[in-house]
Amino acid sequence: MQDLNHEKSWVAQWDKLDERRQNIILFREIMAEGDDVTDDLNEEVTRLKKEVEDLEFKNMLDEPDDRRDALLTINPGAGGTESQDWAEMLYRMYIRWTSHNGMDTTVLEYQPGDVAGIKSATLEIKGNFAYGYLKAENGVHRLVRISPFDSNARRHTSFCSVFVTPLVDDTIEIDLNPDDVEMQRFHAGGKGGQNVNKVETGVRLIWTGKLSNGKEERVVAECQQERSQLQNREKAMVMLKSRVYDLEKRIKEEYKSKLQSSKMKNEWGSQIRSYVFHPYNMVKDHRTGYETSNVDAVMDGQIDEFIKAYLMSDA
Hints:
This protein is an alpha+beta fold. The protein has three domains: 2-59; 70-169 and 263-314, Alpha-Beta Plaits, CATH 3.30.70.1660; 178-260, Double Stranded RNA Binding Domain (2-Layer Sandwich). It contains eight helices and eleven strands. The chain has helices spanning 2-32, 38-59, 81-100, 130-134, 193-198, 229-260, 295-299, 304-314; strands at 70-76, 104-112, 118-126, 139-146, 155-166, 181-186, 202-210, 216-223, 271-276, 282-285, 291-292. A hairpin with a 5-residue loop joins β9 (271-276) and β10. α1 runs antiparallel to α2. The protein starts with a helix and ends with a helix.
């Protein structure tokens, strides 16, 4: 049904383009008869061009996982309160972006910082091409600003890593040996009533095992969103499988990139984007060279142009 709905959406968008084309032909015929409909014609041509560009852009998202929902995890780097505050700013930016694009967002894990910001957060994002778009955000994000936590008003540089993985569903089989998975229980924070606050409803799953390349890996997933421990365990298992799946996927991509010698590894320390608030305003993506001075709009979730520039350069 998902595949069928996906194909139907392509047909519907194509029909809409064809309807615009027919309107343009009609306006030209009206103009040939002597009536001035120049404004209507120009408006229709402008809309047609934009919709064709949007459809061509979406057509580039042709990887099997691009249509999947996404898990987005934010982790601050070294720097304590400063980096944790930066992590919360990115968290807000992605919440705003999903809202602008009509996607549903669920907070699966949220650990507030000791003074300000967050220690980590994981979002489940559901929507058309959620992973296809958000994979452009995978990497390290760097902030330069005058620190609000420094009494001497000095300039600070902070780093946060953003990890985006496709959310696995029942069409993907991930077999994890139960003996390799450790389950830890903890008290979930935040709202939820007496049961959540008194009973250990939060679940953390830790998988330790070998990947297909023989490398031993430790993968952690935790969930404290639901009211019951069972529901949190089920959610955490989906997250765990999604992250193992993403690791296996990266192994294949690294092998492919070695053959093509074209892709750069996505590792901590190789920042993908810089956000400069002082001594000037600029957000620049180091992979594509795309930049803007409107930092307020970017932090309000308007990152579509960055995503588009990355996906077009990658294509």
